Amino acid sequence: MNGFQAQELTRVIEIDQKKCKGCDSCSSFCPTKATHGKYGWVHSVDTEKCVFCGQCLVNCPFGAPKDVVDPVDKVIGKLNNKNVTVVTSVAPSVRVAIGEEFGMEPGSLVTEKMYGALLKAGFVVGDTNYAADVCIMEEGSELIEKIRHYMLGEPTEHHLGAVPQFTSCCPAWVRYVELNYPQLIPNLSSAKSPMMMHGALMKTYGASQLWKKKPEDVFVVAVMPCTAKKFEAARPEFTNAAHYWREKGEQGSYPDVDAVLTTRDLARLFKKLGINLASESGVEDNGPMAQYTGAGTIFGNTGGVMEAALRTAHFVITGKELAPIDFKPVRGLKGVKEASVTITDAKTGKNVTLNLAVVHGIKNNIKPVADQIVAGASKYHFIEVMNCPGGCINGGGQPINPMGTSWLDKAKAVLPWS
Amino acid sequence: MANYDYDYVEKAVEVSRREFVGILGVVGAVLWTSAYVATDLIQDRTKYIKMRAQGLYKDDGKSKVRQSHNNPAVTEMYKNFAGAPLSSLSEELFHTRYVDRTKLV
Amino acid sequence: MKYYDPNAPRVLKHGLSSRLYHWGLMLGFIPAAITGLIIWLKPGGEDFVNLAMRIHIIGAVILTVSSLVYAIVSMDRIVAFNRVNFTWDSRDVGWFMKGGGYLQKMLLGWEVDLPPMDKVNSGQKLFGIGMLYGGMVLIVTGWILYAFIPVSPKSFIYWANLGHLALGIFLAMFLCVHIFLSIYNWGEFRCMFFENGTQPLEEARHHTPLWVANKVIPVRPGVSTTCLCGKEKG
């Protein structure tokens, strides 16, 4: 099969041939034309084109696309194993959606109840929002290095990529670039996604300094709103923790993130263990791997990564905190949002104007932006890209909302023929 | 060809004014209600996304610390472990390379 | 079959507008019903079912357009149709008790006495209700399922799909009965297709006595009876 590394996951989304009606609505949502099949005939997923985002899954009225990676039983097995410390990395988007699987309204903020349910199930609680803060430190520093080097002309000792810089937290977006715009790979931030940073940290810093466990006895379970994260965790290069320990003389070969549960998978796990999240009370403080700021938690929204990065970049460059702290121009469901920020560099006194863009729902919105960069005509310095319309909160792993769809454009008739 | 002229017809349909208004009323009510419900449902199709987004902004609003660089646990981690952003350990654990998949067969 | 008397008085049963609409129904509904079953069962292969889907859409367009035109041009016929379909009394019960007399005639050759019927018999009233209201639901759900899935709530689409399929199967089966009986009653078939919608008055009096007694009147003098529009011109 083309486009896969050795030992990479190649199957995440498959279409149930008995349920598919051939209505072609999955094709209306697929960003890469990966759903094959003529109108009326059962459709199938072309994995060489699929970026595993799951938009077909959450939008199909008949529940035909299925997530075929099911680690729930494996995770329950590890939870029952006294010798294994099972740690979670729970994404921001999970806490405003998992309540829906237990009868609550969309958007119910159930962080404490979620923590309580996780503790009851036997997990040690880690929160991806903490790693999102680390991600801002890393990616923000990378961006500031580029600003200092490319815009202020200062020398650098880092190996820097190109400007404009794309965010790289979205694994569907990363695979999209790798498949369709490889010439833009230098523009992708070298920073990993928060989930992958968190896994590496938990098996190094977490294992040795916080929990005093052997890294091979730490089983990292990421809980994500995203089906593409299952693909990301299985990327063969993400064994940095094991590599770190091998350099120190230890043995062992294990991935940084062992298993990925979608929000739906976690709800199923709770129900299997007889835990009703809605009736849980919770614990607020769960240790350093779960401490987060407001900037980290908004990562799930389109524009959230940009706003979080801006809060830190502003402080690092100007020495002053961003005020007002809510940066509204990057919020909302418009397909491409732009903002321009002029700040004064505290070190040199020079003014720097940053042109920012936020893209989500890449099916319709990324091509003009990417083509402009390829043509060398882009005015942007930093671009946040999220594959899913609305951001990760509307990811392929989230609870399926029966009254909604991801169609953000103007309501119009779609007329399939072939 | 045979001639199919006719000598008898059905009486014209009589609709009294009352009946006419009644029919108009029912048809109008059905059409207006369905149009209203349909536009409502269609306009609200992304409401669940907005509600989830509001939940996260609410979480941001009530956080004690709202900037990543002010997270004490993150500062602690850099102090005791990774050193600083973009340090060599940070590069090793927090950064990655990508793959040109058009060249992977 | 009665001996054909070319001078016998005739009554206009189906006007031109109705006959044309009937053609529209045939060209629209029949391909849609057949291809609808193909789309449901998905036999053959990808190209075959895709072709069936395209024919289904074309049939649906013909059905929708001809229905809209008929509703605008001949709303009075729809009102008459609806009125007679919803007029029920003990005579209809009697008709059903004897099964319309069909099986007795077809299998045993007996002619059974039936209660007097209006322009449509009791079975036709059921078919009429099914086609008028079921047809409207099929048309509305059909267009939503074709053109508006991405913007509609998923649960609505799920139930609309189920309803469209169930109604389609039901009406397609009822249609088979209609086609069979319309051929079996060859006089009716001739009336609709070969005799400009007219029928000998005596034949009408035999099959639809209430209609002839209560709703049929002589054409007024001075009015053309060869005009194909079938309406009284005054």
Characterization of the model:
The complex is a heterotrimer of chains A (418), B (105) and C (234). Chain A is of the alpha/beta class and 418 residues long. Chain A has 3 domains: 13-67, 2-Layer Sandwich (Alpha-Beta Plaits); 72-130 and 193-294, 3-Layer(aba) Sandwich (Rossmann fold), CATH 3.40.50; 139-191 and 296-392, Fe-only Hydrogenase (Larger Subunit), Chain L, domain 3, CATH 3.40.950.10. Helix content of chain A is 33%, strand content 13%. Chain A has helices at 25-29, 55-59, 72-79, 111-121, 128-151, 171-180, 194-210, 228-233, 240-247, 263-272, 294-297, 304-318, 362-374, and strands at 13-15, 35-36, 44-45, 65-67, 85-90, 165-166, 218-224, 259-262, 336-344, 351-360, 382-386. Chain A is globular and about 60 Å long. The model of chain A has no long low-confidence stretch (mean pLDDT 96). Chain B has 105 residues and is mainly alpha-helical. Chain B has 2 domains: 14-63; 66-99, no CATH class. Chain C is mainly α. Helices cover 68% and strands 4% of the residues of chain C. Chain C has 10 helices and 3 strands. Chain C has a two-stranded antiparallel sheet. In chain C, α1 (16-41) packs across α7. The longest helix of chain C has 31 residues, at 154-184. The model of chain C has no long low-confidence stretch (mean pLDDT 92). Classes of the chains: A alpha/beta (418), B mainly alpha (105), C mainly alpha (234). The interface between A and B is large, with 90 and 55 residues. β1 (8-10) of chain B pairs antiparallel with β3 (216-218) of chain C, so a sheet runs across the interface.
